[in-house]
Specification:
mainly alpha, 4 helices, elongated
Length: about 80
């Protein structure tokens, strides 16, 4: 038996970028902040942080942290389904 490790750079085996965006979009919407795909893609190019958009719009850090936790759950759900 061979032991192997398989790495998937996004888009090689599974395309997950859209689902990651959707999870972030949903969590941000719950904060009352609209996350546009074009803005998100620009941030991704430069390793930006879209949660700062929430902070700029007056969302508290505590609310942002809770939204980050929900975002992770949404993303996991999208990947499973």
């Amino acid at each position: 038996m061979k032991n192997v490790i398989l790495f998937d750079n996004d888009g090689v085996l599974v395309e997950t970028k859209l689902w990651y965006f959707r999870a972030n979009e949903k969590a941000m919407k719950e904060l009352g902040v609209t996350l546009e795909l074009e803005y998100y893609l620009e941030l991704m190019k430069y390793a930006g942080n879209w949660w700062e958009l929430g902070l700029e719009r007056g969302v508290t850090l505590e609310e942002v942290n809770r939204a980050c936790e929900r975002q992770s759950l949404y993303y996991q759900h999208y990947l499973r389904t």
